[in-house]
Amino acid sequence: MAFFHLLNPHDESHSAGRAGWLRAAVLGANDGLVSIASLMIGLAASGASTSVVATGGLAGLSAGALAMAAGEYVSVSSQVDIENADRAKESRELVERPEAELAELAGIYRDRGVPDELAWKVAEALHEADPLQAHLRDELGHSEHSAARPLQAAGASAASFLVGGLVPFLGLLGGSSTTRAWLIVLLTLGGLAVAGVLAARTAGTGVLRPTLRVVIGGGLAMAVTASVGQIARVSGV
Ligand SMILES: [Zn+2]
């Protein structure tokens, strides 16, 4: 089984790929929750009116979603560039010096613990089947399933930021300004707990610790921006 995975890690990368995608979505939602809630709490603590808090939240929501999309697009695009350059370089090398490439592949399997003779056999068999794919996968760690899509990644992270960032707005339904502030805090902590549990489930780790980390981190962020807002109020900014 271990040997099989060594040569063909595909069924692992299937779930790892999906987990990566879900993880990115959960992280985007976390970002939206924490940054928009902190922004609104900070504004509320400064004594701003509800309409200012709502407007600030909306501005933050669009700015954050766009920043997430742009950042993700740039990062995934450069990943694509790197993968394409790798692909071109490997194809060229396979044409120019096939023997050296074969030895390189055999060396990779030997380093992973495959006995020398078997490592050569495996490398030869893979070179006969699809040498480029074998090098991209086993030398460079590419996988067909991990093929990066910049636009999809940008859209997914903007959308997940929006979903998370809309939650604190529900707090504006509270009656008094104090109720509104506490509602924002409670809804955000609840949302972070849900996101934390989802992230832990997806990663297949324990639930309590990562969830507590996320909730405490979010609580701290809101406490800090509340203090900043209060300082602004007291100093009459
Ligand atoms: Zn190579």
- Helical content stands at over 70%
* Quaternary organisation of the protein chains: single chain
Global Rg = 25 Å
List the domain count as a whole number. Answer: 1
Instruction: Give the overall average pLDDT.
Output: 87
**Poorly predicted spans:** 1-15
Strand content: under 5%
Structural class: mainly alpha
Tell me the span between the first and last alpha carbons. 65 Å
Shape: elongated
Number of DSSP-assigned strands? 0
Ligand catalogue: zinc ion
Strand/helix succession: HHHHHHHHH
User: Mind summarizing the main beta sheet?
Assistant: none
The count of helical stretches stands at 9
Fold and architecture overview:
The chain has 237 residues and is mainly alpha-helical. The model is unreliable at 1-15 (pLDDT under 50). It has one domain (27-234). The longest helix is centred in the first third of the chain and has 47 residues, at 50-96. The protein contains nine helices and no strands. Residues 90, 93, 101, 104, 135, 139 line the site of zinc ion (ZN).
